[in-house]
Amino acid sequence: MSPSLLALMAAASFALGSALQQRGALQTSAGEGDPRFLLQLTRRPAWLGGAGLQALGWVLQALALRDGSLVVVQSLCTLSIVFALPFGAALTAQRIGRRSLLGAGCTVLGIIGFLVVGGPQASGAAAEPAALVGSAAVGGVAMIVLARIGARRQGPHGAVLFATGAGVSYGFQGAATKSFMGQLGGGLGAMLAMPATYVLIVTALAGFALQQSALKTGFLAPALAASNAATLVASIVLGLVLFGEALAATPAQLPVAIAALVLAVAGVVILAAPDVPVPDGAARDGAREEDAAERSAGASRDGTSS
Q1: 280 — alpha (psi -120 to 50), left (phi > 0) or beta?
Q2: Number of H helices and number of E strands within the chain?
Q3: How many CB atoms lie within 10 A of CB 274?
Q4: What is the percentage of the chain residues whose pLDDT exceeds 90?
């Protein structure tokens, strides 16, 4: 199966997984900054199902990265936003207005335009371990800054900041995955000796926490758009710097490719100010009713035992 087809399948899996995870996140009673938030997620079947689809998406993405270009694979994975809009409407009562559709269209068209005009090509070169670790450390600082600012913002702007940090993490996760897949087969000892293994683990955990905080805000479209755009930009930089990938664009085509990226960023800005707030109040009310029922059942058991 071609890397491009695997990447598109991964995009669909990521999109449905994100929508299910948001449904589960909205059913929790703790705030996104509460330490209990991540623990409550594990009690939500919708969130667990979404996590399974995210894992499947990662496997498909890893298989695509094994032989494909980092920039191409990550670009196609960003198309998950196309699938996420109807999934969000069906699963979390998202109201997708014209502004959201315009923003999504600009983001997707910009990404596709860059992919077609820029013509990124794989080089077959492996990333130097020291360069991968050093660049990941710089990216980690950026993620911390974005998370701290995002914690002080409300609504779609908070979603964009958290999701941008997640997107940076996903970019490094993709680079680490490509390095990991390229050296897979040397046994457990070789895997434990690879710096890419530890970069992969740390970036996966960081991306998970940041993306869940973005989804908890209740704004699926801006969260996915920002994470996708940030992942793409980070992947372009990492593909060119760490893996020696090149753009096939001529000097005359390069401005067009850059303009396509600007269009994608403009789409993110539009999505950051959706038509209406879309938190799923019904899901939150359902979570409160479930928690109350659990407390009542617990009290009944205590009374019986006494």
Answers
A1: beta
A2: 13, 2
A3: 22
A4: 28
Q: Which residue has the tokens 């964009």?
A: 160
Least confident residue range of 74-83, 111-120, 182-191, 230-239? 182-191
H or E segment to which residue 247 belongs: strand 246-247
Pair of tokens at residue 81: 């936003």
Higher pLDDT, 146 or 91: 146
Which burial class, exposed, middle or buried, applies to 211 when counting CB atoms under 10 A from its CB (0-12, 13-18, 19+)?
A: buried
> What is the C-alpha to C-alpha distance for residues 228 and 14, in angstroms, rounded to an integer?
11
What's the Rg (C-alpha) of the chain?
Answer: 20
pLDDT tens column, 258-289:
899 889 878 877 766 655 544 444 444 544 44
Q: What is the dihedral of CA 18, 10, 121, 102, to 10 degrees?
A: -40
**Residue predicted with more confidence, 168 or 108:** 168
CA pair distance 261, 241, nearest whole angstrom: 18
Beta bridge partners of 247: 120
CA distances from 264 to 76, 110, 180, 232, 303 (A): 13, 4, 29, 10, 59
Question: 34 phi and psi, to 5 degrees?
Answer: -85, 130
* The one-letter amino acid at 47: W
Residues 20-54: pLDDT tens digits? 888 887 777 776 556 677 778 888 888 899 999 99
Alpha-carbon distance 183 to 51, whole Å? 26
